[in-house]
Write a structure and sequence with these properties.
Rossmann fold, alpha/beta, about 90 residues, four-stranded parallel sheet, about 40% helix
């Protein structure tokens, strides 16, 4: 299996998603915010990054823009897992 990165400032969410992915056989790396995730990307190349939008230091939107500008991570999939995204798309 390949590496995935979970980026979320909430430790329970980070742990839950990491455990779920680990049980499926993925090698899981994690970071508590976008700044820490950039440090992780210096030494590994995950195929998928799960990212929250609302985080301290570097938020998820900015982090995604940074990742897209890094040629070594051009083929990486970015998956947004965020309550903010769900709230903004809720028509009610």
């Amino acid at each position: 299996m390949f590496e995935v990165l979970v980026v979320d400032n909430h430790p329970l969410i980070r742990e839950y998603v990491s455990t779920l992915l680990s049980k499926q056989g993925y090698k899981v790396l994690s970071a508590e915010d976008g700044l820490a995730a950039i440090d992780v990307l210096r030494t590994c190349s995950p195929k998928v990054i799960f990212v929250d939008l609302v985080m301290p230091n570097i938020d998820g939107r900015t982090f995604c823009r940074i990742v897209r500008r890094l040629p070594e991570h051009a083929g990486c999939f970015l998956v947004v897992l965020s309550a903010t995204a769900a709230e903004s798309t809720n028509p009610g």
